[in-house]
Write a structure and sequence with these properties.
63 residues; mainly alpha; 2 helices
């Protein structure tokens, strides 16, 4: 029964040692993420502009 406790303790220690803190999202060494984020923001703004344009067009449509 003692060996079971030791083995269990070893597994817990190994599991705790393997846990690492997550890397920050905007790491200066990875500029690709910034480019992708900027592209997504531009795409969302373009989509909102398109939707507003369609609403304006429909609102001004002569009935």
């Amino acid at each position: 029964m003692t060996s079971h406790r030791v083995a269990s303790h070893r597994m817990t220690s190994r599991r705790m040692a393997n846990q690492r803190s997550p890397k920050p999202l905007a790491d200066p060494e990875r500029p690709v993420e910034r480019v992708v984020t900027a592209a997504l923001v531009v795409a969302v703004l373009a989509g909102l502009g398109w939707i507003c344009g369609m609403v304006y067009t429909v609102a001004q449509w002569p009935l």
